[in-house]
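Quick one before lunch.
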Amino acid sequence: MLDVKRIESLRHAAVAPVLHVIDGTSRPSRDGATSEVISPLDGRAMAVMAWGTAADAEDAIAAARRAFEDGRWSGLPPAERKRIMLRWAALIEAQALDLAVLGVRNNGTEIGMALKAEPLSAAATIRYYAEAVDKIFGEIAPTGDDVLGLVHRAPVGVVGAIVPWNFPLMIGAWKLGPALAAGNTVVLKPAETASLTLVRIAELALEAGMPAGVLNVVLGEGKVVGEAMSLSPEIDVLVFTGSGGVGRRLLENAAKSNLKRVYLELGGKSPNIVFADAPSLDEAVKVSAMGIFRNSGQVCVAGSRLLVERSIHDEFVARLVRATEAMKVGDPLDPATAAGAVNSLAQLEQNLRFVAEARAMGRAIATGGGRVLEATGGYYMAPTIVTGVNPADSLAQAEVFGPVLAVMPFDTEDEAVAIANGTDYGLAAAVWTTSLSRAHRMVRRLRAGIVHVNTYGGSDLTVPLGGVKQSGNGHDKSLHAFDKYLDLKSAWIRL
Ligand code: NAD
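Model of the nicotinamide-adenine-dinucleotide complex:
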């Protein structure tokens, strides 16, 4: 149960100026620059934050480098790093609701989901990797008797992490958990429009006993701070979640600088495929609506293309429209809200451009299509269903990252697979069917990092998340995530 009184008391609470966390201290930008933080709930300034330049990024990178090289973190026994990280997770958990409300005011996600998906998920992720780190062993190679071949797993050094605004704590923790547990030091750059909670948890890491310089947070624009990180010769690995355009730029900058390894978690245009033999159309309708419209569609794995077998298409769409229109859109701090605010005015305008284009092409808007609650000053959009979309339309090819669903009918399994695989992306997919054989066939045939069967979303930490094709090249979550942050190092010892 959400503590509504507490939420209301925090709704307009003053937020102290938000500073960088560099080398164990909270500090302003070197040039003193700041930026207003605009809340998507009402379009008003809710805080002021430091606005960094390349000089601030370089300070943070230098602090992380010093902290790595002197072994103040990597040199601790793993069990000691674990102890500090478990304390950190407990501090995050103890402040979960306050962190969730601050995050919602900053990025617009509905509070029920934000509490679970943000601070509580971040605490669980940090705990998961902390608990794992003293259970990772090296290897002894099967050599002849005259040598001993050892395979060590060594931290890579300084990790740069650049994260988006849709789930800053969850995605941030997916990077910080394994990177820090493995003994690396980190420079983290949050998204411009969702920085506040990440600064808070970095402060909590210090409180938990993490040494200065191990986790640094630099605020500011991607093309300034993020650019400096991607060009830095002192960052060994860059992990990124965000758009494909920025991902390309990071690869270019890695090539121009020190060939740092770059791991990308990018966008998607994920197909949600409903066959006529779905086990329960009611369940498929309910879950499909949430699969696209929660967090106003600002979810990398959102089921933004709905493919429905033609024999049930009209009935399914009619039911989906009813379920969608029953969703409460608006104030994300109201626990009854199912879809909160769009993160920024720029994102809202982009969503509306996609709808206008579909309309101009003669596609049908079955529900929604416009901005709502404009008088609040906030950025709200009605969940929108567009039918009769052609698989070649930009609405079927490009990621909107908003509450806009493109619906297409299909006749055969082969046609569904062709449409589903017919984009540049390959992040997530779902299949609704009672046929066990078809379910397994589809899992094999769909090109995606995760295929859901008779559900949408909801995987936990035990399985990896990553894309294929232009959805990315690395994996967050699960023990596989350690691979990005640990180098294999061999020792060949003559006996
Ligand atoms: P974005 O690419 O605009 O920004 C992501 C981050 O990159 C931000 O911190 C931003 O400041 C930074 N950045 C921007 N320009 C930069 C530059 N030139 N150099 C370095 N850093 C730069 O993406 P966004 O709008 O914040 O997030 C939405 C995107 O993220 C969507 O495409 C979504 O699908 C994707 N996403 C993917 C996953 C996943 O796990 N695959 C999860 C969530 C979001």
